[in-house]
Amino acid sequence: MALGIGVDVGGTKIAAGVVDEDGTVLTTVREDSPATDRQAIIDTITRAVRGLRQDFPEVATVGVGAAGFVAADRNTMAHGTNLDWTGMRIADAVSQGTGLPAVVENDANAFGWAEFRFGAARGRDSALVVAIGTGVGGAVIVDGRLVRGAAGFAAEIGHINVVPDGRPCGCGLYGCLERYASGTALGVNGWELARVRPAYAARIIELSGGDADRISGKAVTAAAREGDPAALECYARLAHWLGVGLADLCAVLDPEVIVISGGLSEAGDILLDPARRAFTDNLTAGHHRPEIPVVLGQGGQEAGLVGAADLARQP
């Protein structure tokens, strides 16, 4: 059985694990991420891979998943978002340090691939996987293959426009989906509501230490789990725009299944029920097509490294 190592590189932590062909994680290691020093990041990855190979010398490949625009060569970080390695040939550096063939993949692609191969989209030919956390990422699989695009930048679904001239986005544009359908957006919804209706949003404010300016998505979620009407309204607003975005994407992609993953998916039906309604209401030809199920992801915290390891085995 061919073993691979997957590495999930974040702004604060680097997780690496040995993964078999069935997507089972045999062992993992975690280290702090020196995000401001590109060579230190590579050294940390190299050290983790070498350590894992001591117990699993038969490991054949390394896949690295990281946030940013990864070029189509699966080697070069064309633009890093939260790591200092824009322009770096990451796969070459990892391969040189470990002696193993290596590839680099966008982290959302790696996460989505794990759901497609081993998780909620297993057994399908096509899928749209949406990762909702601080921002919104995604992966598109068509006919069993990950869609990377000509430059490697495909599936940046958080930056489709849903509100013309809407909220400013860190990408430089306005009205992007992730400004309305992310964990960050959920906190903004709570803050906006608290500004104009503080009594109505009292529980959200209370869970934010009594300071409306400190409202976060976590506080809104905690209130929503208690059944707080204001928090549920914040979720309804988020779910509306998520449903609109998903419907727009399905008009182009027509996937067999949509998988919702990432930190915000832990809200479960609080998010999923209104998102499904909004999706159905906005889906083109919705009454004339087979149902597109919208389901929760199954990959958990290790999905990024599992997907990266498996993608390293793919042509």
TrEMBL record:
Superkingdom of origin organism: Bacteria
Residues making up the signal peptide according to the UniProt record: none
UniProt KW keywords: ATP-binding, Kinase, Nucleotide-binding, Transferase
EC id: 2.7.1.2
Organism listed in the record: Actinomyces lilanjuaniae
Name of the protein in question: Glucokinase
Gene3D superfamilies cross-referenced by the UniProt entry: 3.30.420.40
Sequence similarity: Belongs to the ROK (NagC/XylR) family.
InterPro entries reported for this sequence: ATPase_NBD, ROK, ROK_cs, ROK_glcA
